[in-house]
Design brief:
The longest helix has 30 residues. The protein starts with a helix and ends in a 5-residue tail after the last helix. By secondary structure, the chain is mainly alpha-helical.
Length: 223
């Protein structure tokens, strides 16, 4: 009994170290994809041996980040999909819901070619991409979204815009909680700006977030 009780703080400390290392790795890799494991350990406040005890190498660390991102995306998809809503509302709700895990999404794409592999990243992101493509196809059928591009191509374009906006937030050039991006996404999909703002306000109000998308979306970037 005493031995078991003594081990519990050690296990808690180990879990805490692992979580801190992963959080630091997300941040540092977002800044510099070439950051070393030693630099990540230093930034995490742990010794190199502790980091390697959890992650034997760079591949193991990146795979853990990939799995963490996959879990976060699955959790969002479980609550973000709204097949019964009109397409414009469904798209606004999805974009706003997924924004909090956008940094993980962005990191996956940044590491896709060199580290994780395009196929591994594509597998992780497939459910989110499929959901957006389905919403866009539904909106095109009902005349809500423009039909200048096929749904899958439009989805890829919107994804690229989201990644670019996340980068701007990361550099401090833009402040957004997902509201502005939701409005911009609807506009890019073919919804008139005034209508897009009203839809996002309505979605946020229904979610208990409060209104104000119109004012926020019309505001400028940081001075």
């Amino acid at each position: 009994m005493t031995h078991s009780v003594a081990r519990e703080p050690q296990r808690r400390n180990s879990r805490s170290n692992r979580a801190r290392i992963l959080a630091t790795a997300r941040q540092e890799l977002g800044r510099n994809p070439d950051v070393t494991l030693e630099e990540i350990a230093r930034a995490s406040g742990v010794v190199r041996r502790t980091l390697f005890g959890h992650f034997p190498g760079r591949a193991a660390l990146l795979e853990a980040l990939a799995e963490e991102a996959s879990e976060a995306l699955r959790a969002v998809l479980a609550v973000a999909a709204r097949p019964e809503d009109p397409a414009e509302r469904a798209l606004a709700h999805f974009v706003y819901s997924i924004w909090p895990v956008g940094d993980r999404y962005r990191l996956l794409l940044a590491l896709a070619q060199r580290d994780l592999g395009i196929e591994r990243v594509a597998d992780i992101l497939a459910p989110a991409r499929d959901e957006v493509t389905a919403i866009l196809a539904r909106g095109q059928r009902t005349g809500v979204f423009h039909t200048q591009l096929p749904p899958a191509v439009l989805s890829a374009g919107l994804e690229g815009m989201h990644i670019a906006l996340l980068e701007e937030v990361n550099t401090g050039a833009l402040e957004d909680d997902g509201t502005r991006t939701a409005v911009a996404t609807l506009v890019a999909a073919g919804v008139p700006e005034g209508r897009a703002r009203a839809v996002v306000d309505d979605v946020l109000s229904a979610a208990g977030v409060g209104q104000g998308a119109g004012a926020e979306a019309g505001a400028g970037t940081k001075d």
